[in-house]
Amino acid sequence: MIRRHFFLFAALGALVLMAVAGGLKIAASAAGQGKAQAQAGAAAARATTVTPLVVAERAFTDRIEAIGVAKGRQSVTITSNTTELITDVHFRDGQRVAKGQVLVDLKAQAQDAAIAQAEATLALAKSNHDRWRALAEKGVAPRATAEQYKTTYDQALAALRVAQANKLDRVIRAPFSGVVGLSDVAPGTLINAGTPIVSLDDVAVMRVDFDVPDRYAPTLREGLPIVARPDAYPGQKSGGVIAKLDSRVNQNTRSIRARAEFPNPDGRLKPGMMLRVAVEHGQRRAVGVPEAAVQFETDQPYVFVIAERGGKLVAEQRGVVAGVREDGFIEIREGLKAGDRIVADGVNRVQPNAPLRLVQGAAAPVAARS
């Protein structure tokens, strides 16, 4: 009797344990599904919001880039060819002067006296020459004597011209129109021959000499357009042309020197400024993307392509070969093709293979087809 009750209770206990185990399994399964759903929701919440862009071709200009130093169309340092005192200064620092304008007067008392003496000598020689020539024509005086007085007259005339030339050396004039620089000379200053007085530059048109590798020699020609960008004025561009090409190639650097000219109407550009010169020699079409869409890692450029995996958008990091930069765009020579979708904005927040969420309402703008 007792044995039958024992087996009955044991069976009931087994049934209870089986029921409890089944309930725990169902609860665990439900908890796992809930956790998976929560993780999926969290992953969706962590997706990075980005702006898409459809890659397209655009026009790129082929350029030869070089660096040069600006100089005026004409530049000179005014000096004296003699040692003398300055009596008058006829210019102000930074003044624009005309060709032939007097800049400096030097002391010329000795030259004035020499001119007066030469004029007196010439007057006497002319009087004697005229009198003896008249007598010789009348047959009263020998012609040889008249010829001697003619020689004396010619010598006196030459002496006057020498004295006048010496006087001209005491007046220093501008050899061409331009702008004078800063000067420290003043009346009373004693200058020596060759001592700089002031600089003079014609800056209405600027020049820049620059070296170009000789492999571009077939491309270079006079009249080819150039663009000059001064470091001193970021954003300013001056258009000009190649005016002259050197007749030789530098055998040490294997380069040829070119000289470009461009207008400087406002006079902002000064001789000596550093210029970045770009020689434009043709256009072509290539895939281009905004500079902000390209990242660099140890000099290796890459972009994030918007890829679809399992019905979700993810960021696929893709290395590219970059070309020239122009107007905020980078040429992509390899790694992308027209029609690819890339991340255009928010690139610095994107991780490789990370989920993406596109800006709501974004129509996936296309890279400009200029």
What does it look like?
The protein is rod-shaped and about 170 Å long. It has helices at 2-46, 109-138, 143-168; strands spanning 48-54, 56-79, 84-89, 96-97, 102-106, 171-173, 178-180, 190-191, 196-213, 225-230, 238-250, 255-263, 274-290, 295-297, 300-309, 312-319, 321-326, 329-334, 341-345, 356-358. Strand 14 (295-297) and strand 15 form a beta hairpin. With 370 residues, the chain is an alpha+beta fold. The strands form four sheets. It has a six-stranded antiparallel barrel with strand order 2-9-12-11-10-13. It has three domains: 48-58 and 285-358, conserved putative lor/sdh protein from methanococcus maripaludis s2 fold; 65-69 and 202-283, Efflux pump adaptor protein, beta barrel domain (Elongation Factor Tu (Ef-tu), domain 3), CATH 2.40.30; 83-190, no CATH class.
Low-confidence stretches: 34-45
Helical residue percent band: 25-40%
Q: What's the mean pLDDT score? A: 82
Query: What is the count of helical runs?
Result: 3
Helical/strand content category: alpha+beta
Overall domain count: 3
Beta content comes to 35-45%
What's the gist of this structure?
With 370 residues, this protein is α+β, with helices and mostly antiparallel strands. The chain is built from three helices and 20 strands.
Secondary structure elements and their pairing?
Layout (H helix, E strand, L loop, with lengths): L1 H45 L1 E7 L1 E24 L4 E6 L6 E2 L4 E5 L2 H30 L4 H26 L2 E3 L4 E3 L9 E2 L4 E18 L11 E6 L7 E13 L4 E9 L10 E17 L4 E3 L2 E10 L2 E8 L1 E6 L2 E6 L6 E5 L10 E3 L12
Parallel strand pairs: 1-20
Antiparallel strand pairs: 1-19, 2-9, 2-13, 3-5, 3-8, 4-7, 5-6, 7-9, 9-12, 10-11, 10-13, 11-12, 13-18, 14-15, 15-16, 17-18
